[in-house]
Specification:
The protein is α/β, with parallel strands linked by helices. It has one domain: TIM Barrel. The protein has 17 helices and eight strands. An eight-stranded parallel sheet has the order 1-2-3-4-5-6-7-8. α5 runs parallel beside α7 and α16 runs antiparallel to α17. It binds adenine and zinc ion (ZN). The site of adenine (ADE) has 11 residues, from α4. The site of adenine has 11 residues, from α4.
């Protein structure tokens, strides 16, 4: 598919960490403004540091990078820059993760992050009709107790959230560690999403489904190691939010050619493509879609299926889904 056509097609992004949209330029600008020391002299040094051998390598820089975010205005600027990118790329709806514990652990209250992010979301909605959901995630490398405390801190803000997620270091931190806190999330009427089967085994995807009752699986690419799991994901059409550039940058796959996007689609799964942490992984949504389609030999109708899946798998109301799906199917290339 050509880039101009892709840009014009309605699509949703369902796996995007707002802290992972912090471009080096803004990172250095905020570091100078807020007098936060970073180990980089200039933008080239920041970019040169983005060579990751694993998820943990990346996370170490990601948590360091977010330390420049100090005020609600900083969160607003960060979010606004991403939303403008959505406008340019024809993303009509975005479901945005943020990491409350990545901020509270360094003395920045959840209210500061939520205030800045939601102001930008409201402005994009009023200026060009973009819709968004906000999804706080628990950091799985921290304790259950820390997640429970964070859940309490989020209580005054629940009306801003559609779902709660689980992210950070996967290996050694299986979903069962968070079964109790996600029971509270569901009792509050929120949806559940969880990173699983990115670096961790297929059993973590079972855990996310059966113990956390996840409505969607973030990544999930290792599901193909378990035929029974693939049957379950297919039968229930549980969406996978796959992030191809991320998987290559974090060495889950050697390159886009060896990614398993096409195999997941051929297995009948509900696959969506997403950018995860685009400032760190080298591209936003449309570049992920275009380069993955080329590398995996996806036809234009398969690309359209991925976009339709992104709308269907979103947490939009049915009427909004139908509106976007009708626009997608009526647009021809
Ligand atoms: N790809 C990823 N996996 C787990 N946690 C993350 N936090 C930000 N990006 C992440
Ligand atoms: Zn992610």
């Amino acid at each position: 598919m050509d880039p101009v056509t892709l840009k014009l097609l309605p699509k949703a992004e369902l796996h995007l960490h707002i802290e992972g949209t912090l471009e080096p330029e803004l990172m250095l600008q905020l570091a100078a403004k807020n007098q936060v020391a970073l180990p980089y002299a200039d933008i080239d040094e920041v970019k040169a540091a983005y060579q990751f051998g694993s998820l943990q390598d990346f996370l170490d820089l990601y948590y360091q990078g977010m330390s420049v975010l100090q005020t609600a205005g900083d969160f607003y600027d960060l979010t606004w820059a991403y939303l403008e990118r959505c406008r340019e790329e024809g993303v009509v709806h975005s479901e945005i993760f943020f990491d409350p514990q990545g901020h509270t652990s360094r003395g920045i209250g959840v209210d500061i992050a939520i205030d800045g992010i939601t102001r930008a979301l409201a402005q994009a909605h009023s200026e060009w009709g973009l819709t968004a959901c906000l999804i706080p995630c628990f950091l799985r490398h921290l304790s259950e107790e820390d997640a429970l405390e964070t859940w309490e801190e989020l209580q005054p803000h629940l009306s801003h959230f559609t779902a709660v997620g689980l992210d950070s270091s996967e290996l050694g931190h299986p979903p069962e560690k968070f079964e109790r806190v996600f029971a509270k999330v569901r009792e509050a009427g929120l949806k559940v999403v969880a990173h699983a089967g990115e670096e961790g085994p297929a059993s973590y995807i079972w855990g996310a489904l059966d113990l956390l009752k996840a409505d969607r699986i973030d990544h999930g690419v290792r599901c193909l190691e378990d035929a029974e799991l693939v049957e379950r994901l297919k039968a229930e059409q549980i969406p996978l939010t796959v992030c191809p550039f991320s998987n290559v940058k974090l060495c889950v796959f050697e390159n886009l050619q060896s990614s398993n996007v096409k195999s997941l689609m051929d297995a009948g799964l509900c696959v969506t493509l997403n950018s995860d942490d685009p400032a760190y992984f080298g591209g936003y949504l449309n570049q992920n879609v275009l380069e993955t389609a080329a590398a995996q030999g996806l036809s234009d109708s398969e690309v359209r299926l991925l976009l339709a899946n992104s709308i269907k798998a979103s947490f939009l109301p049915d009427s909004e889904k139908q509106r976007h799906l009708a626009a997608l199917s009526s647009s021809t290339d």
